Each structure stands twice: as structure tokens, then as C-alpha cells.
Amino acid sequence: MFPTTLLIILFCLNLFFCDIEAEEESFYSLLGVEQDADLLTIRKAFKSLALEKHPDKNPDDPNAHSIFVRINRAYEVLKDAELRRKYDQFGEKGLEDGGGGEQHYQSWQFYNDNFGIYDDDPEIITLGRGDFEEEVFQSGEIWFVNFYSAFCSHCHHLAPIWRELAKRVPEGVARIGAVNCAEDPGLCRSQNVMGYPSLIVYPQQEWFQGFF
Questions:
Q1: Cα gap 56→109, rounded to integer Å
Q2: By the number of CB atoms within 10 A of the CB, which of 114, 117, 127, 211 ranks highest?
Q3: pLDDT tens per residue, range 154-165
């Protein structure tokens, strides 16, 4: 009788600690954000972790690759509105039909120099699939959106001009946005963006392309 009772207790303890481990391993806790965090908060948290945990910066850590792959996976899920809804409802099991996530990633230098070019600019709204429809099409506001690629030299040359424009546009006249097509190619294809930088005024969808 005693061994059976002991086994039951050990089994319950194992479930308890597994639950704790699962909670600590959640995508939100991995990125250090709350469950209701917005896209910009998630992006900033990921960039900070990318610079700290990247294998390029931790060559002596044998677990650096696997840790960073999981951090990258967390970001890929939480930045996507549909994947995030599935994860919130069903956990990682709800994502199994979508594959195991990316096993490759960019260099540390990429995250330092190219990731989130406009994330620290309060006047420029970084847009993604998760909020583009609501912010741009449903808000009723005029938007001037810069579709760029982090790998495009012209896009980097445009960045200081775009920042200055955002500062000079009077509040209430138009909102200034940016979409990184290297990170969100599906959104850019849906807007028929084929070259960078592409500047589009919404809701008129008036184009200005490739003259910078």
C-alpha cells in the first residue's frame, strides 16, 4: 500500500513541476512581455534578447543555438495575429500543424544594425500583419506608409528623411508608418509592393516608388 501511495505522490509532484516548467517556458515569459503586449513591445523585447542571447555573442555556450531558436520561434508566433490567437487558446500544441518554426536566423550584426529601423521613433508607427488592417484600413485616418527592406541600401538612405517627415507632419493631418518587407513579406505582397522603398498614401493608395 505504501509504495502505491508514494508513486501517486511522486506522479503528482512530477505534474506540478512540469506545469511550472511549462509556465516558465511560455513564449511571453521567454520574451519578458505581458500576455496583452502590443506588437511594438514584442519587437523591442525580441531585439533586446537577440542582441544579448545571440550565438555570435555566446560562442562558449553549447546551448546558445537552441536557446536562440526558441526565442526566435516565440517572436515569430507572437508577431503574427493568427498564430498568436492559436497559441493563446491551445498553447504550442495548437501550432503543430504549422511546422516547428524557423531553425535559422540572421547574424548578430543584422539585429544590431537592420532590425526594426524605425522601432525607436515615436512619430513612426511600425506596422505588421497583426495590426495593418485595423490601423490603416479601419481607422478612417490618412496614412503615409513606407514599405522597405532591411537589406535595401536606398531604404537606409531614406530613413533620416522619413524620420524628419514624421516630425514635420502636423498632428491630425496624417499618420506616418513603416513596414519591413524582409520580415513581413506576405503583407507587402498583399499591397502589391514589388520594389523598395515603396511609399503609399492610404486610403487613396497613391504610390511613390523608387526615386530615393
A1: 9
A2: 127
A3: 999 999 999 999
